[in-house]
Amino acid sequence: MVKHIVSWKLKDEAHGIPKAQVALRIKELLEELQGQIPGLLKIEVGIDFSQTAQSADVVLYSEFTDRAALDAYQAHPLHQAGKDYIGGAATERRLVDFEA
Fold it and tell me: Which of 16, 34, 44, 82 has its CA 20 to 30 A from that of 60?
């Protein structure tokens, strides 16, 4: 199994709406992928409430059957659509991919 974790810091405003609304939209976009992409076993999205200088604003936790499934997810059109939206809202992105 492969675990894919991504966190983002967001702009104060993006796509014409405040950060809090952008974070909710990102959560919706990512959670809509559940059951839509082969090999994607689990997806969870959290929105930070601590709001410290060290915090990310949104985090994605996902599980895939294997590395090939993660690669297929990265190229999938549904993922690409969400990626474009998030990219336009993020100031920073960090990720960790590992096998468990």
Answer: 16
